[in-house]
Design brief:
The structure holds two protein chains of two kinds. Chain A is an all-alpha fold. Chain A has six helices and no strands. Chain B is an all-alpha fold. Chain B has one domain. Helices cover about 65% and strands about 0% of the residues of chain B. The N terminus of chain B is likely disordered. The chains are: A mainly alpha, B mainly alpha. At the A-B interface, helix 2, helix 4, helix 5 and helix 6 of A face helix 1, helix 3 and helix 4 of B.
Chain lengths: ~200, ~150
């Protein structure tokens, strides 16, 4: 990951006039990778050991954070970000997006694998279970969210970071990619409301 | 497809790249959708084994799109290959790990035989498509390096 982190280019003579400010940052925060590694290793151990409490924790905590982040990003932070000046947006993005690049995939994988494991262990996928149809609906919601997140949101996130690493970042590209990021986060946020309804329903039946 | 493609939202020429590039990201998203549909199809039958005809057809279709994408990529003469390879190798590692975890989860839950092979192939296609989307989307806005990929 060092190569990804060290691709910054020295800018001789400062930024060109009118260009967004250049902020030094790591595309992938290396220290964060260690935390991700520990979390994923614990997830594997929890699945291997069938630790119900740990699977519950991964699913509930991960799902809660995933949902809250999506809703907050799309419905609160997004509109605020859209009204900021380009330099403010660039500075915010340079500090915010690398963290999201680690946090979101980790939350997603923890929530989904632990949730699937729990569903099987608790018999929620058995044909006789009243939760079965709700869980199948949640698979479909998650499938759509996965395509949006992996096909649109994450590529936009990464492309913004590489654009910001250029000696002369193009504010138009950053603006458009950021808009895509915020809109797709908003869409997945709204879909998360459907997930919330399904999951609260499943947990109370 | 273009409405949800990784590039279409920016429109042609965004980022100073005025060249017409093949719809590699769009095709990769289409391939990803086929894999996701296949995964949901198999999950719907759980805990019983799913009939494998539909998932296999989806795997073949998704694989054909991946092959089309690889051919289109190799044909690109001017492209930011250094950036593309930089992103694709780390993304392959990351999504390889994620796919490995998902495979482990299915194997742990007694998925065996042909069903496990089908799920494994789906995960391979998933782990190839996402790095492709990420690397291509990033590289198309980078400075072009002439010449085919080394």
């Amino acid at each position: 990951m060092t190569e990804v982190a060290d691709i910054s280019v020295a800018l001789p003579g400062g930024p060109p006039p009118g260009a967004p400010p250049r902020v030094e940052f790591e595309i992938i925060p290396l220290k964060g990778l260690l935390v991700v590694g520990v979390v994923l290793a614990f997830l594997v151990v929890s699945i291997a050991g069938d630790w119900r409490w740990a699977l519950d924790a991964f699913h509930v905590v991960g799902g809660g954070m995933w949902t809250a982040l999506d809703l907050f990003l799309g419905l609160v932070l997004g509109p605020i970000l859209g009204r900021l000046s380009i330099p403010a947006r660039v500075e915010f993005s340079a500090r915010f997006m690398p963290k999201m690049l680690l946090i979101m995939p980790t939350l997603v994988i923890c929530t989904l694998t632990a949730g699937f494991q729990l569903a099987l262990k608790l018999g929620n996928l058995e044909p006789s279970s009243p939760n079965r149809s709700w869980l199948i609906a949640s698979f479909m919601v998650v499938g759509v969210m996965a395509v949006i997140a992996l096909g649109l949101l994450e590529p936009a996130n990464l492309a913004v970071l590489f654009e910001l690493k250029k000696p002369r970042p193009d504010p138009e590209v950053i603006g458009r990619l950021m808009k895509r990021f915020i809109y797709t986060a908003g869409i997945t946020g709204l879909m998360q409301i459907a997930t919330l309804v399904i999951m609260t329903r499943v947990s109370t039946q | 497809m273009s409405a949800i493609s990784a590039d279409a939202a920016l429109g042609p020429g965004a980022g100073g790249d005025e060249r017409e590039l093949p719809p590699i990201a769009q095709v990769a998203v289409a391939s990803l959708i086929l894999v996701v549909v296949g995964g949901i199809f198999m999950a719907v039958y759980l805990p019983r084994p799913a009939p494998l005809g539909v998932p296999i057809a989806l795997i073949v279709a998704s694989g054909a799109l991946i092959v089309w994408n690889l051919v289109a990529l190799v044909r690109l003469q001017e492209f930011a290959w250094d950036t593309f390879f930089l992103v694709v190798k780390w993304a392959l590692l990351a999504y390889g790990v994620i796919s490995g975890m998902l495979f482990f989860m299915f194997a742990r839950n007694h998925t065996r035989g042909a069903a496990l092979v089908v799920l494994g192939l789906m995960l391979v296609e998933y782990a190839v498509n996402i790095p492709l989307i990420l690397a291509y989307t990033v590289a198309r806005y980078q400075k072009v390096v002439p010449g085919p990929p080394s």
